[in-house]
Amino acid sequence: MVGARPQFVKLAPVARAMAESPRPITDAIVHTGQHYDESMSKIFFDELEIPRPSVNLGVGSGPQGAQTARMLEGIERYLLESRPHAVVVYGDTNSTLAGGLAAAKLHIPVVHVEAGLRSYNRQMPEELNRIITDHLSRLLCAPTQTAMANLAGEGLASRAQLSGDVMYDAVLFSARLAAARPDSLRVCGLAPGQFGVATVHRAENTAPQELRTLMQALNDAAEQFGHIVFPMHPRTAAMLRDGVSDWRPARQLQIVEPLSYLDMLALVSNARFVLTDSGGLQKEAYFLGRPCITLRDETEWVETLAGGANQIAGSDGSRLLEMLGRVSEPPRSAATATAADGPFGDGHAARRIVEAICDLCEQRQ
Asked: Are residue 216 and residue 81 in the same domain, yes or no?
């Protein structure tokens, strides 16, 4: 059950592990259509060689309640027809919540990949989605020991397994493909190590006043620290157009269309620094040894804070310039991390998850 681009990235290694499993598996991908334009959806399936969805519900964007309700209706209808042994949901989007809730109400076991994350900020829609989904799920695949401890603290330890992080699997698999794509730099007129990368998309950062403040902070950062490439999420573009229409980018802030996964990996791996409110991009920067500054007041991925690999600037970017002034070379703790000593597993999370799903399904038979 997927619907947004971070979920496609997480799905890719799991789909490969299912195809390679010695145990017989029949699986189907349900795409809610939460991300529906080609730059946010189809191109990810093509690049990551993910099998075509069995169904695309075509839900699209909209207010959270209406969007989730449309997903619930479509997912329930599909599950009643197909009656799977288990439903796998990823991450913390409305698609995650809708898939978990629809399956649980039909007494179909839910498997939550990337379970146990907590920001402890219930103003975030994602925090509510992940908490509810964890408590609905039969099998909780936790990416880190921190996530395992969070689940134990909520009485969910008996359903939890430490799998490792499927996004680490994805980056290990895709980084070499991304390295063969120099066009992503040439198109933007960039030289390796001579630019930063920024993304902004979360709901709490894209309300008009909050977005205005944050975009001014990015302008200031570009003016003081040089060229920054800003692949703009459709939600952010819409709010700038409709709610902050008088804002203009600084000369050194280069706005581009959303990039494919491989192009984004190529961009990040060659960047001086990354500025983001994305949980996934925080980790990708960590995996690739790039300094990251998070444009939020907290992070679920506390492991990335070790050694200064990731720093918290605040959702208003108030500490952004100060933190950028301390960024030079990639922090050694991130750049030299190996599978053996890193907190995100050994690059075989997907295989463990597939084995656990098979075990769960066999227990039901």
From this structure: no
